[in-house]
Queue: 4 jobs
Job 1
Amino acid sequence: MAKRLSPTFATKEMRRPLVAVDIVVCAIRDGALQIVLIRRAMPPFEGKWAIPGGFVLPEETLDHAAKRELREEAGIRVAGEYLEQLFTFGDVARDPRGRVISVTYLALIHGEGIEPRGGSDAADARWWPVTELPTLAFDHAHILAYALQRLRYKLEYTNVAYSLLPGRFTLSQLQRVYESILGKRLDKRNFRKRMLSREIIEATSERQAEGAGRPALLYRFRARKPVEL
């Protein structure tokens, strides 16, 4: 016989928590790894900077909610760009409004020329270098630290850097992407040898249009979609 729930248990213990999505958007801009933050326009944490996100509507999938919130709060549309579900954060006290479980996403885009704009419940939106971040609302500092660590790991076993670069790029540009994410300088000769040996990029017949001396050869990723090495 199935166990019968008491009225007290049914009304108190089975109250459904709210589900939210938070999206860490990364790009390489001005030679540095930067993320999109929004300034909250309402409580809690009114006026504080936060990762774009919001509550999932009853009729939508998690992916759809992530794309919608990013579009509404920061004016950024994600279609063919890299978007990955990362982790679920569910600390009981993470939101002062009540029990909120957040499904987090990592979005990687080629951010040159893309300027966020505040909308929905966001008073402002802008790019921030990861080395110059303000104090963040909720547990977003923890979420961001987790996302950045995952991104660093992914450089080791996937071709994920493709999503942060244009279709054609120099090896120097590729190296700057790795250095910006890893937060350290890399030996030029060893880096190039390693990247070419992994066979995830290939040379084109084109060269960089400008630059001192002989224009650098342009490369491209063999696949502009996620591939494990």
Note: The chain has two domains: 17-155, 161-221.
Job 2
Amino acid sequence: MKVKIKKLHPDFKMPFKKHATDACYDVYATSKDDLGDGRIKYGLGFSAELPEGTRLDLRSRSSIHKTGLILSNCIGTGDEGYTGEYMAVFYHVIPTLPPYEVGDRILQIHVENVNQIEFEEVNELSQTERGNGGYGSTGK
């Protein structure tokens, strides 16, 4: 699958994987805007043209715990029709830890196919072993 990337910032670096078996591609911050209320907005310096039937998810990196940041919407999703700059807003919940800076790897992106589904309203669902057991119902 090919994803077209448009460079929007001179310091943009192409998304990359450190290992061939990595599930996601790292992306870098090309701009940082402290919004003054505990939120920080980062630009990623690119826009994309996604193939038909795909989406691009923005996910936190595993090392985010070192920054005191939380991605504001947990996972950001870019739809195939979106061609603007990819950005992310983080909450800086532990101000004593240093946030990401311009040039840092700040997120991972994952591109995947989107299955078209159709919802069907029914009066009953099939019986399963688990049923409606949730929230610790397995006893572990």
Note: Strands lie at 4-7, 25-28, 31-34, 39-43, 46-49, 54-60, 69-71, 75-79, 87-92, 105-113.
Job 3
Amino acid sequence: MEDFNKSLSELMCSTGAEQKSTSFLVNDTDIKYEAMVECINNLLNTGEVPNLFEADPATKDKIMQLVRTKSTAEGYNGDQWN
């Protein structure tokens, strides 16, 4: 399950923060735990997986840095939407 969460967090980083188009394919034979089905269901229904990044603050910081870099490169600043 730990490998699944790591792969899912890497997928979320590349699609969200780096804005890479991605396909996420899962076969029924790949699902070994019920928690995997719950994660996929949450991702499809809400676009997020609860507590996916809670355990690793370094990953959160990496994501925020990627978003900052991308938004700065595209000319957005913090008060543009105010």
Note: The mean pLDDT is 82.
Job 4
Amino acid sequence: MKIFNKIILGSALCLACSCASDFVETTPTDTLPGESIITDQASAESALNGLYSAIQLDYNFSGYDTMLAGLYSDELIHTGSFPSFAEFSVDDPAINNIDNTRYWNNHYSAIYRANLIIKFAEDASVGLNEASTARIVGQARGLRALMYYDLVKAYGGVPLELNAYTAATDIDTNPIARSSASEVYAQIVDDVQYAASNIPSGLSRFNFNKNAALVLKAKVEMEMGMYPEAELTLEPLIGAYTLEGDYSALYTGTSSASETIFAVDYNETDGSSAAFFYLIAGRGEVAASDILINAFEEGDTRIGQISSKDEVIKYKDAGSGSDDAYVFRYADVLLMYAEVLARQDNPDASKYINMVRDRAELGPVDLTSENVVDLIAQERFVELYAESSDRFHTITRLGIADEVIQAKAGNIVFVEARNNLWPIPQQEIERNSAVSIADQNPGY
């Protein structure tokens, strides 16, 4: 298979990169051949560190991900000079768009690292005890599921690679075709069910923990219209966290200890790209759209994270990029729970959306099965903007992406046949003999 070129394979084998300070510090393994990456407890912990480092890559959770998704939807506008960003802002990324290609490669790089951990940590010769295996493999499978969730949302069906290769020749001789979206979702569910069952309680918010697995599982169940199942999945999380009293307290550079379910840890020496691109003090490549700004009701305190110059100021540190990146937080869960209840005509639905609105100093709404799409789309827009690609994920899941994209101002290229998907990178078609031009998403 040629999803990864040799450079990406080499980086995937460098599993012990810098990562969050919470993780075990062990000897780097970047000079070891693939088959020797995990040989004992220390190297297994080092490999897990390396996987978290891959989650920090630019196009995973370091800022480019939310910017591309925000430009493609309607929450951001392009204010800089990158032609590749301009293509996303008019919903017309080329098949060789460099940012689209890097998004694909960064996600698969993390998947490749996860596959190596899963294979070697479960090998009896490595000698991990049962608890260590469950903890390490559980996180690896959870993070692999998270990467595939982003990919299936952006591209539809993608090559579903679960094998761990140890040499570039393995990639060259094992081409793999695109799986269907339903097959990818099934694998995500299998991974998160394993994660939820095997990851021990007590992991930090900077680890893919048991509750993060439940959130991701519920997101997939909602994608599939399985609302009763999603309700059951989310129930253990209700009341397990608390909202910050002030929305602005979420954005101090450090993720909220009370509201965060899972976040990516950045610091002054291991920073993200987000603030640099959002802030004029950095590059100022993107800004809040008029559509986003006008979406806030009068008195909504959440607009305070947009500056008078239309900067998204949720990310503060343009110099070193030390701002943590939210993946899942409790407000997201409350809005998910409100939605699944409303779709089942449960009168308690309004309670949970109004918990989020009350923090924003807004009055209550009555959430029902009749208005659930409109109210949930609105509330998620103003609560979760510029976080974890939520706007793009929401409008595609709710079936309103065509409407949203057509409502954008400017020179918008709207092609209905595209089904709101990004193009499979031309690089992938050229390198993977099991994926041809005929496999490209419609409209590209």
Note: The chain has one domain: 6-439.
